[in-house]
Structures are given as C-alpha cells and as structure tokens.
C-alpha cells in the first residue's frame, strides 16, 4: 500500500493511501467530533459535525468520509471550523427533545458529551421537536423519535449487519426520518428484537424496555421465593457497565450483590448451558447416526430463532429442538427445583440477567411454559442490572466474592464460553468427542473456532467421523449459510449461529459503547473464566449428572423432551 504525506495544523504526518482525514488526525492525537460515524459501521457522512478546512477548498470537508491526498493541508481548529461545528450542534439540539435529567442515556450520551466538548452554551434556533410518540409496542425495545438525531446508524446495523431491514430512512434531505413501513409500530414488523440498533444509537432514541421495577417488587413480596440466573456474558460486562475496565470479571461480586438486595437463591445460567450441551450434543449424534436433517443449527439465540421463523421457515428442521439455556433453566427451576425443595411453583419468581434484549421476548413465547407455568418470569439486561446496582447504592466493586447456590449454580468452563461466538461449538465438541470415542480429549482449547470474525469453519476428527462445522455471528452471516442450504451447497454437519456480532458478549443488552476492541476484551475475560475452572467439560458437571439421575433420566429421554426441547414455527407479520 502506498503512503501519502499530509500536513495537519502545521504538523507533517505520513499515512497509508486511503486513510480518512479522521483517521489521520487520530494518529497524531487530534480528536475530531463525530456523531454518525461508528468504528464498526460504514461511513455515512450524515451529520457533518466532523468538518475541517482543507487548503484550496471553499467548502468544509467531512473528516470521516474524505480520504487524504498527498500534500493536503488540513486545519481542524480554526475559528471558522469551531463556529460552524457549534451551529451544526445547535441545529441538532433545536430538533432534539433534551431532558437529560431523566433520560436513560444521560452520562453515556454522545450528543450530551459533544455538546459540552464543543462548548455549546446557548441554542439560538427555535425549538422544532417532533411530536412525542414513544413506541412501546415491542416486548423488548422502545423507540422515541423525538430524541433521534437522524445519524442513520440504526438503519445501517439493521439492514447491513443483521439483514433484517425493520427500520429505514423515509423521505429525503431535511425531511428525512427514521421510520417503519407505513408508520407501523416496531411490533408490527419483522424486528427480531436483537437490540443492535440500541447498541449503536449515540443518544436515547432507542433503548431496552425497563423491567427493573418488576424485579424490585418481586423481591419485596414476602410471599414469593425469588431466584435469579446470570448468563455467561454478564459476568465479564457488568463491571464495565458500572465503570470498571472492559473485560473485568465480577462473577462472585454479582452473586454477593444479588444476595444483598434480597434474592432467595442465586443460580447460574451456566448450569443450564452444560445441560444444553448434554441435550444438543446427543441430538447431533442422533442426527448423524440416523440420517437426520443436517447441518444441525444451534438454537440458543432467540433473535436468530425469530429471524429463521420470519425469513426461512422452510429450513426450521435444521434448528436444534433444544431450548436455550435461559429457558432450560426456567423449566427446571419450576419443576425439579420446586419439587426438590417443596416450593409451590405458583410462589416462585424466576428472574434472568441476560446480555440480550431478545431474551425478554423469548421468555413470553407461548411455547415456554412446559413446567405448567411461564418458565422465566422477568428478564433484565446487563444494562438494567447496572442501573439496579447504582440505585441500590451498594458498591458492588468492593464486595467480597461469593459462590453461587447449589445445585443450579454449579457449572463448568464449557458453559462459561457460551458467552462468546464459537463457544457453544467448542463446548459441544469437547463433549461429543469424549462420548463418541470414549477417550479423553487432551487438547480441549479449539483455537480455530475462536475470535470475533463473523464466519469461521473447521473440520474436527471424532473417531471415524470427520465433522465439518461452521460458526457464524450476526444474521447477515447466518443468511449465507441458509442460502447455501437452499442451493444444496452446504456440507456442514453442525453450525453455531449467534444473532449478535461477537456472540452474547456483543448482545443488545450489553454496555454501550461496545465496539470490536471492547468486545475482544470481554471475550478474553470469557476464556479466562474457562481456564480457571477445574472442570471444563459439560458432561463432567456433577450437578447436571445428578439432575439426570434424580429427575430427567437421560439426555433426549421423555422428561428431557417435555421440559428441555421445543419446536419453532413460521411467523408472519
Ligand atoms: S439523548 Fe442525550 S442529550 Fe438527549 S436527553 Fe438523553 S442524555 Fe440528554
Ligand atoms: S432490534 Fe434488531 S431487528 Fe429490530 S430494529 Fe433493531 S436492529 Fe433491527
Ligand atoms: S434512532 Fe439513534 S441510531 Fe437511529 S438514526 Fe436516530 S439517533 Fe441515529
Ligand atoms: S461524523 Fe462525519 S459526517 Fe457525521
């Protein structure tokens, strides 16, 4: 790649050809303001807040979408630039419903931060705010167009990363709006509730439905036995949500915190992740031996399930019949656990802490009541738990670490890695290998399957079998596999699909921002947890083996089928 030399504010700098002015400035520690630009998305050039002066040009250039040319002289901090940026910011604010004191994104809002950084102390334009029509139709996502600054990030992630296209740009130029077809509500369209639009929104215009009050109420209710499960990815991201370094592992502190605020038992979704491997691994073996539908595709990610139900229902036979770990946990909590401890299932409340907005919708699916009751009652995201931590005024980071309760809190390293793309596949193969060969898998770290890339594949030798596997994250990559199957060009046996980029660590309920650099730190945390556990294979989990012995019988047995498996159906809007 060729090099070009440019001069920025009097300083010479040499960069690769094709570098943008924004990137060149970053290289010499000049921070250009941005709003529509996002490190993991394509450049759009919608907001113009990043303008700079280029010598010889009468009009400003947008730093995020202008590539440098050799000999270019750039000025980023002239009076003219500063004043123009302030005017742009004032125009944005004039059509924005600013109510920072009660806004979900206050203190983590790019508009709020930038307004201060640009020293905007006064808005000289008349206010022209859209009527307040907050869309609360979805069980997971809330839209508030009166706070939208029309940056276009949500549209791009929904179309280009997820391949869904639930929201789009309506009208042109200054009339442009982020809209839904025929002004429908979010729950009227094929939104899969992935929450990726929330994660990239710079302001409080899209956010998760808040269920924290329901949890506080349940804890206060003396007639209820309230238990909680924590998903694998939450333990490496809650710390970040409350101000610690990305990737900080706070498992034991979360347990201590949840006990302090009044939960009767603190359990671990990782227990159910091990159970999932027992069921899913055996389902794969059954399909391989009995000419079943292949590739088998994983089913733990509810946004992915909703996607295939909407867009490829004819391929639903490829999806494993296993419920997700969240739902397996709920079904067992309201059957096995209540029976074992003599609790009336009517009096138990099951709360989940998940990295995922789509889990809120999964919990209320009509199929998810095999215990005879709604298996999971309330789902909170990592961000909502972060809010409860702050509201409680308990300093979680100072708490002594505590252990999960038994038996539904005992888990292995295989379960821990469910939180990262590739983790379910690696966990499944650790078990399938030993079940098929009867031999110990010596090298259990399957590095080929790790990493944040959207599409990975590998061939794994299991005894006589050569199992061809693929791991995909984000729905655009899942679509590639589905199209291969439709064309008869797919020779994979097993495919792991995660709806969100990076897997659950990049879920729609995770801390914001969550760019790829931050996601990698969360993934490192996940594998660190795995390495530190004495048992790293699901079929060696003593609590899971005990549940089969006492209650379920065997994997894929009658009781397992009733409680831990389900079927998915075509959905239309
Ligand atoms: S979106 Fe940002 S600027 Fe607007 S009210 Fe919320 S915190 Fe304030
Ligand atoms: S939740 Fe996902 S599918 Fe729904 S609008 Fe947002 S990005 Fe699109
Ligand atoms: S909803 Fe958020 S991400 Fe979408 S255009 Fe508006 S401000 Fe941007
Ligand atoms: S950040 Fe450059 S145009 Fe929006």
From TrEMBL:
Report the main location listed first in the record: membrane
Q: What is this protein called?
A: Periplasmic Fe hydrogenase large subunit
GO molecular function terms here?
2 iron, 2 sulfur cluster binding; 4 iron, 4 sulfur cluster binding; ferredoxin hydrogenase activity; iron ion binding
Q: Which Pfam families match?
A: Fe_hyd_lg_C, Fe_hyd_SSU, Fer2_4, Fer4_7, NADH-G_4Fe-4S_3
Coiled coil (UniProt feature): none
- Record family assignment: Belongs to the complex I 75 kDa subunit family.
Instruction: Please name the InterPro entries in this protein's record.
Output: 2Fe-2S_ferredoxin-like_sf, 2Fe-2S_ferredoxin-type, 4Fe4S_Fe-S-bd, 4Fe4S_Fe_S_CS, Cytosolic_Fe-S_CAF, Fe_hydrogenase, Fe_hydrogenase_lsu_C, Fe_hydrogenase_ssu
Task: Cite the 4Fe-4S His(Cys)3-ligated-type domain residue spans from the record.
Answer: 80-119
Q: Which cofactor does it need?
A: [2Fe-2S] cluster; [4Fe-4S] cluster
Reported EC number(s) for this entry are: 1.12.7.2
Q: Which domain of life is it from?
A: Bacteria
Instruction: Please report the stretch or stretches of sequence annotated as the 4Fe-4S ferredoxin-type domain.
Output: 139-169, 182-211
| Source organism of the structure | Caldisalinibacter kiritimatiensis
Q: Name the UniProt key words of this record, in alphabetical order.
A: 2Fe-2S, 4Fe-4S, Iron, Iron-sulfur, Membrane, Metal-binding, NAD, Oxidoreductase, Repeat, Translocase
Question: Under which main EC class is this enzyme filed?
Answer: oxidoreductase
NCBIfam families, A to Z: FeFe_hydrog_A (TIGR02512), FeFe_hydrog_A6 (NF040763)
According to the entry, every stretch annotated as the 2Fe-2S ferredoxin-type domain falls at: 2-80
Which PROSITE patterns does this chain map to? 2FE2S_FER_2 (PS51085), 4FE4S_FER_1 (PS00198), 4FE4S_FER_2 (PS51379), 4FE4S_HC3 (PS51839)
**Localization per record:** Membrane
Report one GO cellular component.
membrane
